[in-house]
Amino acid sequence: MNNKKKTAVIIAAAGTGKRMGSSIPKQYLKIGGEPILLKSVRAFCDNKEIDWIVVVTNGDYIQACLEMKDRYGLDKIQAVIEGGEERQDSVYRAIVEIDRLCPEIEYVLVHDGARPFVRQETINAVLEAAEEKGAAVACVPVKDSIRQEKDGESANLPRQRLYAVQTPQGFQKEILRKAYEQAFADGYYGTDDATLAERIGQSVALVRGTYDNIKITTREDMPMESRVGTGFDVHQLKEGLPLVLGGVKIPFEKGLLGHSDADVLVHALMDALLGAAALGDIGRHFPDTDPQYRGISSMELLRRVKGLLDKNGWRVGNVDITLMAQRPKIKSLIGDMTDNLSKTLDLETCRINIKGTTTERLGFVGREEGIAAQAVCLLYR
Does the structure show a pLDDT above 60 at 2? Predict the structure, then answer.
């Protein structure tokens, strides 16, 4: 590649993300703790062939984008502008901005802000092909069989010659500008930039992309974030108190001492869930100094913890709980405990495991002075 030729990138990030069903545009959702848009932009900031970046975003998020630029040192971003009604309108606004602010730009790449996994080799290959051919797109061979529907009938299309088109798409700037101007003159709206270039007679080179360079459009496209949490709790056994474990009231001469109903099994589980979500612990949310929690059912507290998980987008994958008690034996009660947790967490029983063990009469558990519980959970979102 000729390093003397100045290259700009247009990041198309003005969509509202209706298909994602999110309260914020999809490009501002986070993957691995970072906004999708940040990952998309950073790929081009890290490429030495790129001189200039224009981000086109939703008007309500211009300030957020500028703050992201400053926070992460994205110095190649030279302009953040408001997008138009359609993607085509947004990209054209960026072309006009490039002509106005940096007319010496010779090549332009257009990239979807919701494609955060683009690789450096793809960027370089598209730019090199654009310099050689005038226009180029990243694409991958179609893996699935494709059928075309017409008038209620369908026919198979030979996939050997079919490609799924991605971004970046690269162009000589003048070719891209003319393609857009002609499309608007004709009242034509295309699905991508290469289609507009083809309409003015420009051939488009195909550059092999990568299958992981997906465009995040729906929730199914979001890679799952998973976390593991652990919880541990101990309560003292005392004569004459009710004994509740896993939401099941158990006939026994002793019960557990605590501010709530002292369900040690559920307490350990709640701490595991809160820990995995980085939401603190039960002492923070339900302090034993607060009279409103005196005698409260731990299953009710678990329901509230589930609400906190829901609010933060977390779902429970599975839970595994070990109850440590010399007595009583819980084997016959595990089914009822599992059902209680299943209903409260909205989790299949096959994802819940409860087991009991003793300490071979060692320690406070072995002396029947208390009961302990340990829990492990997996969360995902």
Answer: no
pLDDT tens sequence across 292-310: 999 999 999 999 999 999 9
CA-to-CA distance for 115 and 214, rounded, in angstroms?
A: 6
* Stated pTM of the model: 0.66
Task: Write the CATH number of the domain with boundaries 226-380.
Answer: 3.30.1330.50
For 7-221, CATH gives 3.90.550.10
How far apart, in Å, are the Cα atoms of 113 and each of 168, 241, 296, 321, 366? 10, 60, 48, 42, 60
pLDDT tens track for 141-176: 999 999 999 888 899 988 888 999 999 999 999 999
Tokens representing 246 are 């896993």
Q: Is the pLDDT of residue 222 over 80?
A: no
> What residue spans define the domains of the chain?
7-221, 226-380
Q: Give the span between the Cα atoms of 381 and 379, in whole angstroms.
A: 7
Cβ contact 47:120 at 8 Å: yes
Contact yes or no for 209/141 (Cβ under 8 A): no
Question: Is residue 55 scored above 90 in pLDDT?
Answer: yes
- Residue 11 and residue 81: Cα distance in Å, rounded? 10
Separation in Å, CA 329 to CA 58, 253, 297, 338, 356: 60, 13, 22, 16, 8
Q: Which residues sit in the known binding site for a divalent metal cation?
A: 233, 235, 267
User: Which region, left, alpha or beta, applies to residue 135 given φ > 0 means left and ψ of -120 to 50 means alpha?
Assistant: beta
Positions at the binding site: 233-235, 259-260, 267, 281-283, 286-290, 357-360, 364, 367
* pLDDT tops 80 at residue 268: yes
How far, in Å, CA of 367 to CA of 370, rounded?
Answer: 8
How many Å apart are CA 193 and CA 104, to the nearest integer?
Answer: 21
Q: Are 376 and 352 in contact (CB under 8 A)?
A: no
Average pLDDT of the residues in 212-226: 83
Please give the Cα distance from 53 to 98 (Å, whole number): 9
